[in-house]
Please model this.
Amino acid sequence: MKCKGIASVYTMIEKAAPTIVSHTGIERDTVIYPVFLRENCYGCGRCYISCLDGGHQAIAFDPVTRRPFLNGSMCVGCHLCRLVCPAHAIGKAPRAVRKPVSQENVWSENDDPVDEN
Model:
């Protein structure tokens, strides 16, 4: 914190407080998808494993070519894949408008979550 000129946790909170917004104030209609930079990719699969384990299972991995592929319909733009990539082979696409969620895939209180058959 010292290298950033922040003397204490209280100073950090004081600086951060004006940027905090309610959950209703967060823009959720667009997403910034990751872009795979094939020329930099080692083929290690860390992006695939991180998305499979801690993300939204939005990356497929071809074991023959050792290259990842994005399933944009499942990606939420968390960029966990970018954080774990040792080759810096994942960039950001321009902001895109998210497709509306189909109501048939939305669970409601009236739905029975347990199938008794």
